[in-house]
Design brief:
It is a single chain. With 99 residues, this protein is mainly α. It is 78% helix and 0% strand. The relative contact order is 0.05. The model has no long low-confidence stretch (mean pLDDT 83).
Length: 99
Amino acid sequence: MLKLGTISVAVFSTIFMGYSNSFFTRKRKKEIGLYSLLGLQKRQVARMLFYENLTNGYCSTWCRHYSGEYIFKTLCHAFLQTYGTFCTGIFRHIPTSYI
């Protein structure tokens, strides 16, 4: 059952990424046309867009990771403050220095 969920998420993600990529490409058609009018070759424009997407992906992954870590720490701290020692068994896998 888990494999079916993994496959369906992968298929949905692929479809969504393809749709969003074509949507953003259509939105930036004028900008890409301007680059070609300025004399850039298709290869140069493609490289520029690749590095732009790579930078955006790296930054969003970094922000997502550290904001998730911060939210997790905050919620764990609030949960432990609320329930005290009655629930320490739930967080056995988390080092106490982490919280």
